[in-house]
């Protein structure tokens, strides 16, 4: 059975999958779910706190009052139930955010490897210069694959699918090499910041693209800030 990092239908989840998906964002709020129900995390905490009288009036508190009290109760640590429940609340909210980030990455982020140490070992074994050369070669192969696919008018459906699969394979090779380039040159934070800046510029450009060709707009957006 394939383990799914992100899933939403509890009727199809394994216990392990539920353990990674039992909190989630719904209506811009943290929610809890199990195999029997789903409920806002605040209401879950009201239920737990009221049952154990810690605090006893939790089910009568507004959302803001509940948040404030549970935040304040963190001072008790694990010495009493009020502190334990405050820690639980903090953990549930934190896990909700982390799952939302993972879901966004799994949906739109570049695929990556779970074994980055292998790529780091490649840099150490073969040398940075050799890996940079390999990155250039792989990007060239991707360019060739894209140009081949563009000639689709002269290809049958079978050839077209083969060309598409070739693109995907070359994309995988390029991602592997891009990961190594960041290992070689560092600056991961700068790369992330630059991506965000360029996407912000793209948002502004998209609002003013009428009458311009897509290639002209894209080239302008991707120009260096300097």
TrEMBL record:
The organism's place on the tree of life at top rank: Bacteria
- Protein's name in the database: NTP pyrophosphohydrolase MazG putative catalytic core domain-containing protein
Q: Which CDD domains match?
A: NTP-PPase_u2
What organism does this protein naturally occur in?
A: Agathobacter rectalis
